[in-house]
Amino acid sequence: MLANPKRTKDEIVQWIRSYFESNGHGCDAVVGISGGKDSSVVAALCVEALGKERVVGVMMPNGEQPDLDDSKQLIEFLGIRYAYTDISKAVSAVSDQVALNMNVSDQTRINLPPRIRMATLYAISQSLPHGGRVANTCNRSEDYVGYSTKFGDSAGDFSPLANLMVHEVIQIGYELLLPINLISKTPSDGLCGKTDEDNLGFTYAHLDAYIMYGTSGIEEIDKKIASMHDHNLHKLNPMPAYGTTIF
Ligand SMILES: Nc1ncnc2c1ncn2[C@@H]1O[C@H](COP(=O)(O)OP(=O)(O)OC[C@H]2O[C@@H]([n+]3cccc(C(=O)O)c3)[C@H](O)[C@@H]2O)[C@@H](O)[C@H]1O
Ligand SMILES: Nc1ncnc2c1ncn2[C@@H]1O[C@H](COP(=O)(O)OP(=O)(O)OP(=O)(O)O)[C@@H](O)[C@H]1O
Hints:
binds adenosine-5'-triphosphate
């Protein structure tokens, strides 16, 4: 629990400002807007840091998206510029070509859309007149167990929420006065139709308790979290490389 959400919010806003001063002077922040709390909070933080003129929200439905109105609501609420790109043709083009060679696995079906979204965000970012920097919207809880697609939604140029657990992101959302329906929405990856908590097999409350206190209070869940953490650390660590790298 953040002791002082306003202070943390102000610190992140300042951090985003400094990031852009040294890494993207004059360019725009590009945020994929799913209509969930993470992208809503990231977009709002960028607006506070850079001004609404320098934030571009990108809606990327994979065909029909039942909660598209939530993305539109956020974009309207913040008054930011936006782009709309239906990724379904790109997703099926890649998957159809793979299918000519082998069976397309469920793992591929789940992770291809976030990777196409990543490519889309960079395509938009690099086409902006003043250039852009792509926001990563992952939070600490998701990162802890690797609940993201490697080089998909785990990618980005800067990551404002990487050190905030889910319940802390919600606190920041309230601090930013974002619409309650977006902040309190049940998290889902929008990929397989299940909620995050169904997929994970534990709640974010369990996960955040484990991160804070070393236990969720349930031994079986603790083992699962520890195992996911170990198995997915490769998503956060730099890519192993042969030899000694000199930069
Ligand atoms: N030990 C290791 N060292 C280095 N690399 C390793 C590795 N093990 C796998 N890999 C590589 O990583 C790949 C697997 O990683 P990845 O492609 O990410 O796939 P994976 O971890 O299997 O799946 C991603 C999970 O994240 C969930 N997700 C995705 C996107 C957004 C959200 C959300 O709600 O925010 C959730 C999704 O539902 C799914 O459960 C393997 O194919 C392999 O290339
Ligand atoms: N349909 C979409 N349109 C635009 N961006 C998307 C879309 N789906 C996912 N994204 C981007 O990928 C990130 C991860 O999305 P995901 O749906 O997996 O949920 P999440 O981690 O719970 O995030 P959020 O709370 O923002 O929904 C989002 O924060 C957003 O930036």
